[in-house]
Structures are given as structure tokens and as C-alpha cells.
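Q: Got one fold?
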Amino acid sequence: MLGAGGYSYYFEKHKTCSEHRLPHFISLALCLIFLVLFSLAASAQLPGTKPKEFKPVVPDFADPSADWWTGWTSASPEQRREWLQALKAGWDEWQQNLPKDDEALQKGAKKITQSLEGVEVTWNKRQEYLKVELMPDVKFPEKPTVLDWARADAAISRGQRRLSGVQLEARQLRESRAQSLAQLRKQVIVLRDAKGDEEDEAAQALMLAQVNHLNIIEQLETVNEFLGTWQEKIDLAETKLRSMLNDLQFSEKDAEKLEKSITDSEKKIERIATTRTSIQSTTDPSTDPNVNMKKDLTLMQLEVDLLEEHLGKRKSELLQSINRVLNPKNEEETLVVSRELLENATAVIESTSRELAIRQRQVVAWRDEEEKADLSRWWAYFERIGSGLARANDLEQDIQRYEKAQLEVYRERQGWWATVRERLALTGRQVYKRWRTLADYQLFTIAQNPITLRLIAKMVFVLVCAWLLSMLTRAFLHRLVRREHASESSMYNLSRVLHYIYIGVALIIVLSMLGLDTSKLALVAGALSVGLGFGLQAIFSNFISGVILLFERPLKVGDLVELESGVFGRIRDINVRSTRITTRDNVDILVPNTEFVAGRVINHTLDDPVRRIHVSFGVSYSSDPDLVREAALEAASRVNITHTDWKRKTEVWLMGFGDSALNFKLVVWVNSNMVTSLGDSYALYNLELLREFREKGIEVPFPQRDLHLRSWDAPVLIARAEKNEKNEKK
């Protein structure tokens, strides 16, 4: 049945549906659904009542099953208590039947009894936990002052630290639960494989592991319940603390107390600094390690004390600044800003922690060498310094909260624009702190060196910088070619060499970032050279040949070359492994660099692009040699690649008397830079020669042969034919 709450819920829901102007039948259907759900909830099992079908599972202690305890987590607290009582009763009865003379079984039974009692102890602790007050000294007065807010903030901070300790306990219990499950599985296997007298001990071990697991479950549930309650209290207290900032009142007494606190801190800072200076200025040499250790630890203690006083003074200054801005008599107050203090404090805490760890290792080494040494005084030093570092860390967090509070109060009193600069700086510090936390997360290790996101980002930055520097260098050299008319091939070779230098230096830097000893690269290079000599001989040979071509410069981009293999064309690119050549057919051929170094290469444009070619041709015997010479010279002059000066003149030579023609040669000088890789200079001259010979009527003969037929005697042939016919008939 529905109670008054159910009907009020129905009418409230019906009202909500009507306010949203839903159709009447839809609102009625929704309300009926909620009524059904509410009735199911009302008729459900109330907490604290005993289910009718519940029956505690008591295992066979001589051979316990692996899963008899699995219903424990779904049982109610009353059911668990009933279950535990049944387990204890059954165990006490079974324990009496154990042989008294078997010490191992009696010892195992005693452990199981203690473990069963431990579950009840955990339940009792739960009640004690719930009675503990998280923040007993936190107060929120109606008209709070700055010091009231500081006391409330300190109480909440202490509560958060206590909550952090409980959270750590919860994490440890979760790990223990996982380990306990693994132990359960292991004991099940041991019991299954046990034989003879080992079965009783294995059964006890499994039972003990199961009861211990139940105890861990109860402890974890207790801690989780405790965490939930405390977290709600802290969240509520933090909400009240934030609203408390808006209600702060100016207090003259607080101003006097804060001023006195700042003055006391300054005196302590001066006294500690004087003491530290006097100890550091001591020049009495001593070879006793105990004396030196005592001096170092004393200086560390003074350094930590000095840091604490500076941070405490900073807290008082922030509270004083907040109190001043609350004074209605003051028109405008400036923010108390000191960004360097927190940065220096973080650096001092980290460096002192590292140095303290080194000193502790030294003391441990002394203990190994001298067993009789009294080390208690050193550990007292370590504890004092460690406690001081913890307090300094807490003060650093307090200052960060106080700075935020100062910004909130100043923004409320003097406007948002008065604190925009400090807010941006605070946001930047928070972002940087989170980035540091994320960047320092260890992903994996290489040679025992941690690889973090920060290190990966640095390596990527180095490689990108090397690539950008190479691109800028290439653009600068290209600009020199365009504006200063520098040699294109020289600038190309220089850009290639600089590119490989940049990449090589960047790779060495990246390897050093990874923690690899770059001084041992010689050993790596030696081993690599052996491998190159066998498996990568061809690739390495091409690489060295490419470096030789880039530095020696026997070839350059744009040269017209002819290789021993018959490849003819212009060079387009000179890379480390191969060189690209464009042939007359506009085909790009990648030629290994070793072919240029080890083979014969004809470079038509190495130093002087003018070269001489020999164009052979023939004319009939009836042609006038002088007319032929004149026609050939005329044809050569019409070809645009022909080069003629007072040293290099075109000539026509009569080379010999052939079977069908007079053999001539047109010896002409040509400019190779004017010869394209897509054309043939011989074809140009042959075409002009043919055209000129036709105009002048000079005949170009074709090959001629004379045939002479020899006649045989006819009667002899006839006699031979008749003889062959007779032989065939026989």
C-alpha cells in the first residue's frame, strides 16, 4: 500500500506533468508508472530484517569447498553475524576432534580461531570509526575574521590529510584483497594435489585463507564506508569555507597579531641565517667523517628551518593583505605577490630530499663497516630534517590556497580587473604544475633510464629544430642562387652536406637524451663497420661514393654525362645513395654512386662545355671534294650548337676511299650546355648535311655489289641425272 508520502509524490508528479503541458493520457501513464515503481520499492525487503530463505553455509572443515564463502558479500550485516556465529560454533565443535598430539594441526586451528575472532574485531572497529570526529576543531562563526578563516582552513587541511591516510589504507586493502584471492586459488590447487597426512594441513591452510579473505572484505567495506562519510563532511566544510570568504570582517586585533607574527618570523630568520653563516665560515679542517657528517646535517636542518620561517612569514603577509583590503577606511590595497618564493621552496625541498637520501646511504654504509657504531643520533637528525621538509611542503600548499583566497577577496572588494594579471599568472602556474605531473610520468625505461613524455617532447623538439634549420639553410642558399647568381650546383652540394650534418648532430643529441654514452659510439661504429663490410657492403659503398661526389665535385647538377654502361643524359639530383639522370627519352634513371666513382664517366661539361665531335658521311666518287667541303661547312654553320672562334674552327676531312663512296668527316666544335638531354647532336648535323647536299646536287651513294654467274657443262649434268634415276629404280 502507498503511504502519505506515496500519494504526495503522485500528486507532485501529476502537477509537474500538467505544468509541462503534456497530453492528459501521457501524464496519466507516467504517473501510473511511478506509482508502480513506488509500490515495488515500498514492498521491498527493509534493511535489518532476516530473509526467510537465508541459511548460513558451514563448510566441511576437513575438505572445504572453494566457493562456500562467495555469498558473504551479498549478505546483510545481520546475516553475516548469524553466518559468523554458525561458523564459530561449527569450528569449535570440529576443533575438539583434532588429535591433541599433532602440534601442526593444533597451531593451524588456533590461527583459524583467531581469524574468526578478527572479523568481530573489525565490526567493533567500524563502530569506533563512525564515532571519530573528522574535524572536531573546525568552526564557522557568523562574522568571521581572517584568523577565523585561517583556523578553519587549517582544520580542513588536517582533515584532508587524515582522509588521504585512509585512502592509502583503502588502496592497500584492495591490493591485499587481490593477493588474498591469488592465495585462495593457490591453496585450492594444493588441497587438490595433497595426499595422505598432507590433506588435513592443506584443508586448514585453505580454511585459514578463506576466513582471512572474509576479514579483508570486512575491513575494506569499513574503510570505504568511512571514506564516504568523511568525504561528504570535507566537501560540506569546503563549501562553508568558500562562503566564509564573502562574509569576512576587518579586525584590528587580527592585524596586531599578524604584525607581531611577521616581526617574530623576521627575527627568527635573521637568527637562523646568522647561525648558518657562522657554521659555514668555520674553516677548521677535519678528517673525521663523523664531524663532517654532523656539520652537513646541521646546515641542512638550518636550511629547512629557514625555509619554514620564510613560508610562515609569507602566510602571515597574505592574511594581513586580506585583512587590510577588508578595512573600509583603506581606499585601495595592492596584492602581496612573490612568485619566486614558491619556486625556490620547491627547488630547496627537492634538493634537500636528494641530499638527505645520500646522507642516509652513507650512514648505512658506515653501519656495514662498523657494527658497533651508535647510529641513533644520525637517525634523530634524519627524522628532524624529514619532519621539517614535510611541514615545509604543507606550508607551500597552504600558501597556494591563501593566494587563491587573496585573489577572491580582492576581486570581491576592488573588482575583477584589479586581479586579472595575478589570476592569469595563477592559472599559468596551475597548468604548468599539471603539465609537469603529466610530463614526468614514466612510460618505460631504456638502459635503466626512465622515458617520460617530457623527454619524448624534447627529442621531438630537437629533431624538428634540425629539420627546420635545414629548411631555412636550403631557402637561404636558394635565395643566393636567385639574387646573387651563385653557382646552383655548389649551393646544392652545400645544402646537402649541411642537411646531413644537422640530422647527424640531432641524432647524437637524441641518443644522449636517452642516456646512451655517446663516447662509446666508436665501439658501435666499429661493430657497425663489420656489419657494413658483409651485409650492407653495396649500400655503404654507395653512401661513401655519394659523399665523395658531394665533396670532390667531379660532377654537378646540370652536367651532361655519358657512363660506361651507355647511359647518356643530364644530372638532375646527386643523393647519398644514387644520382638521378634524365636521358634523351625523358626517362629518369637512378644510377648507383659507385658507378660514377669506380667506372669510367664522360663529363661533357666538367670544365669547358665546348667539345669536338666527328660526324662521318660519304658522297659518290663523281662529287667535287671542294664542293663537298663547302656544303658541309655551310650545313654546320646552320646548327645552333656549333661553336666557332679563332682557336676552334670547323673542318672537313677526307678519311678514305670506300667501296661505294668517298668517306668524309665533319669535325665540329659544339657547346654541350646548348645540347638538351632530349636531342642528339649527330642527328642535327646529319639532317643539315642531307639538306645541303640535295640543294647543291651532291649525291649520297648507297652500297652497290656486282654478281658474276659461272656456267657449268650441260651433258655432264644430264648424265648425272640419269644415273641417279637408275639407282632409284634398283
